[in-house]
Amino acid sequence: MFNDSLVFITGGGSGIGRALAHEAALRGAHVWVTDVDGVAAERVAAECVAAGGRADARRLDVTDAAAVARTIAEASAARGRLDYCFNNAGIGFAGEFRDSTLEQWQHVLQVNLVGVVNVAHAAYRQMVAQGGGHLVNTASLAGLIPTPGLSAYGTSKWAVVGLSHALRLEGEALGVRVTAVCPGFIESNIYARTIVAGLKADAMRTMAPFPIMPVEGLIPRVFDGIERNRALIVYPFYARALWWVWRLVPWATRWKGLAQVDKIRREYRTVA
Ligand SMILES: NC(=O)c1ccc[n+]([C@@H]2O[C@H](COP(=O)([O-])OP(=O)(O)OC[C@H]3O[C@@H](n4cnc5c(N)ncnc54)[C@H](O)[C@@H]3O)[C@@H](O)[C@H]2O)c1
């Protein structure tokens, strides 16, 4: 499915986006690696080429709607179409709601939600115009279940899941497929870069209540889910289990959430 396709990736300079770029290039796609860190995007594109693939790189900040529209138009024009768009760029933010500022909320929502809308808007319209395509939004397990201590991040990811469900229905008769990827904890640079409010600097990593999984396990699930045109790709096993429990017996997840709040306050909160 990916052979000779055009694959556009945001946040492709690191972690999940980088691994998606490698896999798409390996499958014969022409990959456009974009990232707000232009050097990282160039590096990943060079890795794809060194592995025998085809790749271009651009510096792209997803919060800049005009630049997003321009870059997606450029990529689409270069190949005549846009087959897959991995709407993946995102940032982490951890902290209790009472400790976070409105400026921090705006920053997280700007990147994780408005940025995703900017990319979806340009990519989806291109796909409608050409009569097909697949938009793959990276949400999170935090977009499927309650996430105490990650309220801003969780809010952005629930919104991305909602956007994906709506676009999937709107796009069906237009030939545009839409999938949301909802990973649990995946090894990447997000933990080191996460902004914290009132928490120890490494809290995002150390307070993770479930194992942080290698990215290599996620990628085949993503490509398999795309081929099967899944609405949601939820990985790993504990993410699927938690999501099911939350939907079937929401009260049963209450103790886990309250225990997490207690743990955060005892072990990670730095505010007196
Ligand atoms: N790692 C996890 O545990 C995990 C779990 C669930 C969801 N996610 C989501 O996966 C996506 C990728 O995260 P990751 O874990 O690979 O993190 P990462 O930090 O390794 O990579 C994220 C990339 O996004 C880029 N980026 C940040 N702000 C940007 C902007 N404004 N415009 C363009 N690029 C920008 C960064 O430069 C970085 O290269 C994010 O949306 C994240 O929320 C990650």
SSE inventory with pairings:
Layout: E1 6-9, H1 15-26, E2 30-35, H2 38-50, E3 54-59, H3 65-79, E4 84-87, E5 93-95, H4 102-130, E6 133-138, H5 151-172, E7 176-183, H6 190-193, E8 195-197, H7 203-206, H8 215-227, E9 232-235, H9 237-248, H10 254-268
Helix pairs in contact: 1-2, 1-8, 3-4, 4-5
Shape: globular
Radius of gyration: 18 Å
**What is the domain tally?**
1
Q: What's the β-strand tally?
A: 9
Largest sheet: 7 strands, parallel
Mean pLDDT: 97
Sequence of secondary-structure elements: EHEHEHEEHEHEHEHHEHH
Unique bound compounds: nicotinamide-adenine-dinucleotide
Q: What name goes with the CATH superfamily?
A: NAD(P)-binding Rossmann-like Domain
The fold-level CATH name is Rossmann fold
Taken as a percent bin, the fraction of beta residues is 15-25%
The helix-and-strand class reads alpha/beta
Q: Which strand order spans the largest sheet, edge to edge or round the barrel?
A: 3-2-1-4-6-7-9
Total helical elements = 10
How far is it from the N-terminal to the C-terminal residue, by CA? 55 Å
Helix content: 40-55%
Structure description:
- With 272 residues, the protein is α/β, with parallel strands linked by helices.
- The chain has one domain (6-268): Rossmann fold, CATH 3.40.50.720.
- It is 51% helix and 16% strand.
- The chain has helices spanning 15-26, 38-50, 65-79, 102-130, 151-172, 190-193, 203-206, 215-227, 237-248, 254-268; strands at residues 6-9, 30-35, 54-59, 84-87, 93-95, 133-138, 176-183, 195-197, 232-235.
- Strand 2, helix 2 and strand 3 form a beta-alpha-beta unit.
- The longest helix is centred in the middle third of the chain and has 29 residues, at 102-130.
- It is globular, with a radius of gyration of 18 Å.
- The mean pLDDT is 97.
- It binds nicotinamide-adenine-dinucleotide.
- Residues 10-11, 13-17, 35-37, 40, 60-63, 88-91, 111, 115, 138, 140, 183, 185-186, 188-190, 193 line the site of nicotinamide-adenine-dinucleotide (NAD).
